[in-house]
Amino acid sequence: MSQSPSAKSPLKERPTRERILRAGLHLFQAQGYHATGVAQILARSKAPKGSFYHHFPGGKEELAIVALEWLETEVTSFLDQIVAEGGGTADMMLGLTRHSAEGLRNPERLRGSLLAVLAQEAIPGAPAVHAALRRYAGSTHVRLAAARVREGATETAAQAFADQGLALLQGGSVLARISGGASRLEQLVAEWLRQFRLSV
Q1: CB of 49 within 8 A of CB of 42?
Q2: Which of 94, 88, 75 is nearest to 150 (CA)?
C-alpha cells in the first residue's frame, strides 16, 4: 500500500501535525481508542505541549476522523492504481491482505485494524467518527463491487462479494492474531477467492 511522501523520513523531520497524526494512528491501533490519551500521543510524536489542540481543536475525536480520512486516501489510491494497471478483484483483495499481513509479521508494528478498533469503541458515542468509518469502508466496498461487475458478476452478487471481502479481511486479521501467524489470513483469503474461480 502506498505511503505518504514523508513516510520514510525521520520522525523529527516531519511536520508537527503529521507527527501527531501518525502517533495517534499507531496508538489507536496498538492499544485502543479509549486507552490512548493526549499526553501519550504528544510523547510519542515528540510534539510540544499545546500543539495537539492547535492542530486538532476537536480533540481526540477529530484526530480519529482525520486518521480515517488519511487511511481512506491511502487505500483508495492503492486500489485505483491496481485497476489502472489492469488488475481485478483478486489483485485488490490480495494487495489488501499483504498489507495487513505485513503488520502482523512485524512485532514492532503489530496492531489491530483502525476500522475495527474505532467501530468497536467509538460507536455510538461519536457520530462523526461513525460517519467517517462509513465513508472509509464504503470507498473500499464501492471499488471491490465495481471491479466484480466488470468481471461479469451481477450487481447483487458484486455487492455480496464486497461485503464478504471486507468482513474476511477484518475477521481474518483477528484469527491471524489469535493463531499467531499472518499466513492464516493469507490462506483464508486465497481459499475464499478460489470459490469464485479467481486467480490467486
Answers
A1: yes
A2: 88
All 3 cell numbers of residue 48?
510540544
Highest CATH level, class, for 60-195: mainly alpha
Contacts of residue 87, Cβ cutoff 8 Å, sequence gap at least 6:
95
Task: Read off the pLDDT of residues 17-39 as tens digits, 9 standing for 90 and up.
Answer: 999 999 999 899 888 899 999 99
What pTM did the predictor assign? 0.86
Put residue 49 in one of left, alpha, beta given phi > 0 → left and psi -120 to 50 → alpha: beta
Cα–Cα distance for residue pair 196/163, rounded to 1 Å: 14
The residue with cell 463491487 is: 145
- Please give the radius of gyration of the chain, using alpha carbons only, rounded to the nearest integer: 18
Furthest-apart CA atoms within the chain: distance in Å: 55
The Cα–Cα gap between 24 and 33 comes to 9
The 10s digit of each residue's pLDDT in 130-168 is 999 999 999 999 999 999 999 999 999 999 999 999 999
Contact 132, 65 (CB under 8 A): yes
What are the φ and ψ backbone dihedral angles of 153, each rounded to 5 degrees? -75, 155
- Domain ranges in the chain are 60-195
Which string of DSSP letters, residue by residue, matches 11-63?
GGGS-HHHHHHHHHHHHHHHH-STT--HHHHHHHHTPPTTHHHHH-TTHHHHH
C-alpha cell at 23: 502517533
